[in-house]
Design a protein that fits this description.
- With about 160 residues, this protein is of the alpha+beta class.
- It is about 20% helix and about 35% strand.
- It is built from 2 helices and 8 strands; from the N terminus they run E-E-E-E-E-E-H-E-E-H.
- The strands form 2 sheets. Strands 1-2-5-6-7-8 form a 6-stranded mixed sheet. Strands 3-4 form a two-stranded antiparallel ribbon.
- Helix 1 crosses helix 2.
- The protein is globular, with a radius of gyration of 18 Å.
- The protein starts with 6 loop residues before the first strand and ends in a 16-residue tail after the last helix.
Length: about 160
């Protein structure tokens, strides 16, 4: 058994204590089909939080100012799913912003932005409904979903 001290970081002037966990894999307390991998779990200012780390190009769209909850919808859905499975009401998205260095192949970090997201019952219910349908119609019977062209159907 690993016995490590919790890692402590300072985020926006607040003390973030990361939990030492045997696994970053979370099973929903009631839904057998709902699992998520959460990058980290910690406590920030007395609140337990899911923590997700991202890297984005300086040209990425859909992100608001650091400290806000404005992020692309696919990221919002991912974080909502993680909070649902981990049964945690708050999340931080720590995003390194930069660009690829063509000479070295490295990602040159320009700055770090931190986004905060509260658990949203409406989005969570939608995510669970979509996952349940996929689970029942495709995963359990072993029926692959139809191929997607990547284009949305017009209404």
């Amino acid at each position: 058994v690993l016995d490590l001290l919790n890692e402590v970081r300072i985020v926006e002037g607040l003390r973030l204590v990361l939990e030492t966990r045997a696994s970053d894999y979370h099973l929903h307390p009631e839904l057998d089909f709902a699992h998520a991998q959460v990058d980290d779990v910690g406590t920030l200012d007395g609140r337990r939080a899911c923590i997700d780390y991202k890297s984005q190009s300086i040209w990425a769209k859909g992100w608001g100012p650091s400290g806000s909850d404005i992020m692309p919808e696919h990221i919002r859905a991912q974080i909502a799913w993680e909070m649902c499975c981990a049964d945690i009401d708050f999340a931080l998205v720590v995003m390194g912003v930069g660009e690829d260095n063509k000479e070295t192949g490295d990602f040159d970090l320009r700055h770090v932005s931190i986004y905060r997201l509260e658990r949203c019952p409406q989005l969570e219910s939608y995510c669970v409904a979509v996952a349940r349908k996929f689970w029942q119609e495709h995963a359990l019977p072993g029926v692959p979903p139809a191929k997607s062209t990547g284009k949305r159907k017009s209404k």
